[in-house]
Amino acid sequence: MGATAAGILFIGSLILVLAAVHVPLGDHMYRTFTSTRHWRAERLIYRIVGVDPDAEQVWSVYARSVLAFSAVSVLALYGLQRLQSHLMLSLGFGGVEPDIAWNTAISFVTNTNWQAYSGESAMGHLAQMAGLAVQNFVSAAVGIAVAMAFVRGLARRRTGELGNFWVDLTRAVTRVLLPIAAVAAIALVAGGAIQNFADPHTVGTLTGGEQTITGGPVASQEAIKELGTNGGGFYNANSAHPFENPTSWTNWIEILLILLIPFSLPRTFGRMVGDRRQGGAIVAVMAALALISVVALNAAQLAHHGTVPESVTAASEGTEARFGISNSATFAAATTLTSTGAVDSFHDSYTSLGGAVTMLNMMVGEVAPGGVGSGLYGMLILAIITVFAAGLMVGRTPEYLGKRIGAREIKLASMYFLVTPMIVLVGTGIAMAFETPRESMLNSGPHGLSEVLYAFTSAANNNGSAFGGLTAATTFYDVALGLAMAFGRFLPIVLALALAGSLARQTPVPVSAGTLPTHRPQFVGMVAGVTLILVALTFFPALALGPLAEGIH
Amino acid sequence: MNVLPGWLRRHVAALRALLVFTAVLGVLYPLAVTAVAQVPGLKDRADGSYVSSGGRQVGSDLVGQSFTGEDGNPLRQYFQSRPSAAGDGYDPTATSASNLGPEDIVDEGGEQSLLSMVCTRSKQVGQLEGVDGSRPYCAESGAGAVLSVLGPRDASGAVVRPTRVISVNEPCPAVPFLAEYRGVQVECAAPGQDPRAGKIVPVRGSAPADPAVPADAVTASGSGLDPHISVAYADLQAGRVAEARGVPAGTVRKLVEDATTGRALGFMGQPVVNVLQLNIALDKAAPYRG
């Protein structure tokens, strides 16, 4: 079989499995988040936490609970990193530097997993498993919880209540993330991913040199890193490292894990609003945008334009031989489309246009299909903006799922959309305006700008991948990107919950002849169009100065 | 509890929730996965897929190694791994890619550009294996073939009439790869010159479109620990290794086949050769008597 045919089959098999699995998993999540019964283990957790699982929360209380849990998580993770040298399993590493510890704490709590640290030279096993991996689970669970609260806002009528954050958080962990991650972790071990608590172990190599082989509970962390669309690697080399991603088939599994929950949640949404076709329309928008991106990225990488790739005769710099160029490009598309940010190849060395596609994927706002939970509420807000735009054209008050999109709703939705571009463009502007942040660029010219633009895009959209050439472990970037991640995560969450609260209070208007149907291909096309136009208008000038200037001679 | 204000109660609940989740997800879960990974068949992999040669542990099946002598030059009796950007090469405590971009073609501040690295490696591999190491955009010297063209520019930035042309990656007293460019004599790069004062022009040259040295032999991997090389790169090295060990080429080719993994399920990834496995098998089947 030729390399191209194999690459197409690789993508096709992922699509087939996702098409088959998203229905039962979506239904499972529907049952999970609508069931009134608690597991015994869950009751125990609620008792320890000290909350009544049957009490509901209005949007502001839900939002405060999210913020309280995240604030406590940031402090605890910061403390754990700073104090690791006094705890067990530190491998002799000292406390992590304050600015890196702050950046990393924010990074993992916001589901970004930007890596200012280098795993193998800074983090002991305890900080990895009891700090970083725990946030891999719970930051993903927070995303799912907020998405469920948002959907309840659309589904419910004449109530202020959106559910109970602690229940949603717990169930996302116990009934969704933990079972899948455990199975996936064992599969990864079978492929060769390591799972031990060994210290670094030095061996004499075949030629008489020395090599230090690292240990660690890698597989258990790798599984949730992908499943929770987190992306922070146990090692600096992330999923390119053979101990994280040892074979071509573990690579396939990891891509599947990345896409699994984001593509299943629209089904959950459809069930919760009582109309599966609505979920079908949302997943269709996500799938269409994702497919375009996967094909474009594969095409750009295989065409290998650019001086170095043309000299090499392939875009193989920064890719692993066992994966090959096409599967690496597919991973890169999946990771940037979902706010994951794990990498099995290094985007900084991608062709100019390939690198532009990875950036564009994030700029779309991580909605196609986006991070776990955040992708769904992001896409639903774009759907609301779409019905508003359509309503403007015919001069009619827009509605979505029977809920009127009035002044308050559209203000919240617009603010939601504007948060990340603001952070990305202002942040990049500030960085480029000063001498010190500019010195962090490894590459010069347009590619240097791309490195900085990529960093802020990645942070504000909570992706976490990087054009790794940028020396980001400086006080400026640690602080600036930490703020970008925090604002890029929590401002949209608060706005989305406020919007959900406002929608939940309404009495739905009956469907009439003038209602725009939101489950037909026409609407799918409109949402995709609105998304692309908004993103293009916002980011085209910045892209023109970076990757496009580099790629077009 | 109820005497506490609401905001404080919420943060106490958050702290308790985090502690519960840390116990379950941060301790029990990794321990449980580790426990399952102790079953025979999984344990070796969970421990790091260590491999031995001659009764001695020599590394991991999954982690590549350098097969160079103390002087850093490739050992002729061993198959060579890909270039590595991890520390000084294949250092698992400093995994890394080069992160150099597709248009990184000008050597600056004593650092080789990615293009020059590719060209140098291609030339060296070509010499080692006795094939033509030339590639597009590479000078014969092993530097990237890149000119800085100075002179008045038009509105689009193109140089209308060159006044000086410098081969930026060939420091003086090198003889530039090109004698003349658009009627102007090409100079070597004098120290202290700013190569970006002129327009940067890479020169394709006359190298074949399909170079004899494969792509993976001249590019670094993402992890810097890539344990594999392409089948093409292994085939290229087989003759030299057989000669160094004084065995028929067929013997070595057979071992290459044994160390080759095809695509998983026929369509995942690329066919690759595990270099450490291959070299261990070589030492066993055809010991080097150098």
Automatic annotation (TrEMBL), chain A:
Q: Give one Pfam hit by family name.
A: KdpA
Q: What are the UniProt keywords, alphabetically?
A: Cell membrane, Ion transport, Membrane, Potassium, Potassium transport, Transmembrane, Transmembrane helix, Transport
What topology does the record note for this protein and the membrane? Multi-pass membrane protein
Q: Name one GO molecular function term.
A: P-type potassium transmembrane transporter activity
User: Could you tell me which InterPro entries the record lists for this protein?
Assistant: KdpA (IPR004623)
Membrane spanning segments where? Answer: 61-80, 137-155, 176-198, 249-269, 281-300, 376-394, 415-434, 479-503, 523-544
Cellular localization per UniProt = Cell membrane
Cellular component annotations (GO), alphabetically ordered: plasma membrane
The answer to whether keyword Nucleotide-binding applies is: no
Q: Which HAMAP family match?
A: KdpA
Its job: Part of the high-affinity ATP-driven potassium transport (or Kdp) system, which catalyzes the hydrolysis of ATP coupled with the electrogenic transport of potassium into the cytoplasm. This subunit binds the extracellular potassium ions and delivers the ions to the membrane domain of KdpB through an intramembrane tunnel.
How this chain assembles, per its entry, is: The system is composed of three essential subunits: KdpA, KdpB and KdpC.
Per the similarity annotation, which family is this? Belongs to the KdpA family.
Its name, as the record gives it, is Potassium-transporting ATPase potassium-binding subunit
Q: Which organism is it from?
A: Actinomadura soli
Gene symbol?
kdpA
TrEMBL record, chain B:
Name by which UniProt lists this protein: Potassium-transporting ATPase KdpC subunit
Q: Where is the segment annotated Disordered? A: 80-106
Primary location class: membrane
Gene name linked to the record: kdpC
The task this protein performs is described as: Part of the high-affinity ATP-driven potassium transport (or Kdp) system, which catalyzes the hydrolysis of ATP coupled with the electrogenic transport of potassium into the cytoplasm. This subunit acts as a catalytic chaperone that increases the ATP-binding affinity of the ATP-hydrolyzing subunit KdpB by the formation of a transient KdpB/KdpC/ATP ternary complex.
Please provide, in alphabetical order, the Gene Ontology terms of the cellular component aspect for this entry: plasma membrane
Report keywords, A-Z. ATP-binding, Cell membrane, Ion transport, Membrane, Nucleotide-binding, Potassium, Potassium transport, Transmembrane, Transmembrane helix, Transport
How this chain sits in the membrane, per its record, is: Single-pass membrane protein
Annotated family: Belongs to the KdpC family.
Give its localization. Cell membrane
Query: What molecular functions are annotated in GO for this chain?
Result: ATP binding; P-type potassium transmembrane transporter activity
Instruction: Tell me the subunit arrangement.
Output: The system is composed of three essential subunits: KdpA, KdpB and KdpC.
A Pfam family per the record: KdpC
Which InterPro entries does this chain map to? KdpC
